[in-house]
Amino acid sequence: MHRVLVAVVAVVATLGCNSARAADPLSEAPGERYFDPTKVEFPSTYVDALRVWKTALEINQWIGASFEYDSARAMRLSETQRLLAGGLPIHKPDDFFSAPRGICVDLSRFAVETLRTIAPQSRSSYLMIEFAPLSVAGNTLRRHWLAMYVDNGSYFFFADSKRPGHVAGPYQSVPEFIDDYAKYRGRQIISFRELDSFQRKTRALAGKQTREVRP
Description:
- The chain has helices at about 1-15, 45-50, 55-65, 70-75, 80-85, 95-100, 105-120, 175-185, 205; strands spanning about 70, 100, 125-135, 140-150, 155-160, 170, 190-195, 210.
- By secondary structure, the chain is an alpha+beta fold.
- A six-stranded antiparallel sheet has the order 6-5-4-3-7-8.
- The model is unreliable at about 1-15 and about 200-205 (pLDDT under 50).
């Protein structure tokens, strides 16, 4: 019964960006929730999750029902405060499973590392998007992180803190998704990178694809 429910709910949540309701361009907080956490049974521990989950859609279902956005952490990890006081550690997947509260990079790390463990053939990686700067409470917000994977030659994007539980795809290329995502967010995308790691020190070596987006 659990497998059937996963499949049915996951299909409902797998929609292209054009089918999604437009986001508030002045807010980083999530909009609608895609899953009802009271209607699905989840593994009780991260170890159990790694044993039971087989696909990105199962990870996505848990994200949709469990993730909570941490606005205070978003400000502390903003470009402004990182320059002043340094960064914060990004939540490890097992810790995040126990307390699924954070921001985009916490969520994408959980999704990418979990999917790499349960389904390495999915070729999961990070998508780092650089928007035109947005100021919230005096803090500059510029970068946004998602997880991406490949299935049957098509690209899919999920673990988006702006719409947890949504899988965008299939797309034939990353730039195709970027064009749709800019419309959904209502913000100009300056550039994007497909990365193997979320860690700043490895970005220069880890980038698979980099593109500057001009209006």
